[in-house]
Automatic annotation (TrEMBL):
Species of origin: Caenorhabditis remanei
Record lineage: Eukaryota, Metazoa, Ecdysozoa, Nematoda, Chromadorea
Protein name: BTB domain-containing protein
Superkingdom, natural source: Eukaryota
Gene3D superfamilies in UniProt: Potassium Channel Kv1.1, Chain A
SUPFAM superfamilies: POZ domain
Annotated BTB domain residues: 136-203
UniProt cross-references to CDD domains, sorted A to Z: BTB_POZ_ZBTB_KLHL-like
Entry-linked PANTHER family: BTB DOMAIN-CONTAINING PROTEIN-RELATED, HELIX LOOP HELIX PROTEIN 21-RELATED
Coiled-coil parts of chain: none
Amino acid sequence: MSVDKIEYNNGHLNVSANTDTILTKTINGLTCIWKGKVIDNNQSIKYSWQFNWNEILEDVESFSGHIQVRRTGLSPVETTRFDVKLTKQNQIIDKVVVNTNQCSIPAIAFDFCFVPSYGLKEQICLEEMFLPSEKTDAVLVVDGKKLHVNKTFLSFHSDYFTALFSSKYKEGQMDEIPIEDVSFKDFGLLLSTIYPDSVFPTDKTVEKLLELADRFLMKSVIRHAEHHLLRNSAIQHEKMISLADKYKMRKLLKRKISDIGCIEDGKKLKLSAEYDKLSNDAKAMILDELLI
């Protein structure tokens, strides 16, 4: 059975100059071996996480997500986040951070969240999806390939296709209608999101789906993407805000802005590459959140 998201949150543990492997944990087939040690005469703390997913039977190609470390003995609690891409078995993530108060036995807690990317075995066959049948009544030509589709079905989901199939446009009278500037794979992925045997958005596909849903006026695909980003995604927080603003996903935008917990989080967002892409309305919402 496919897993949408793997999350783990441990209680606090102590590290020192003498600790090595502190914790081994398997969650939904993803095994994490965590090591922590105080180094450099209490000046720094070295963390190490080793991940493997041999116990997962599905064809997982990679994981995207983050690891977040908390110094629970400090007031306020110090939090450090690392964005991580796991692409191979037994991959090791090493990080060295400053030991803020030079404590010899600091209390540490960490959590992680990862979203898997599945291989082609998890995907339906696009060629089979667009074969002619008694239910199809139009042919789209995308990237040199013919897609047999149903006009009413596409029009129901897309104002773009409502217009395209109408008698007002020459395309509506053509036997084969070309769709330019999109690959067969990407266009097939877009339509597969609304077809009965749906392929749901993933962190790997969601941005492309939003781009195409915006172009082809498919509000239902944007809603599918927003649902994924709200519930199953490990995409970086700043990127989520940018996507929510660009594609007018109001619920996601409000949720992610409300997650900005302090001035420091706001400063991190402003320094990110995503901040300059935000609308003035989104920037105003962020300011309002920080001033509450």
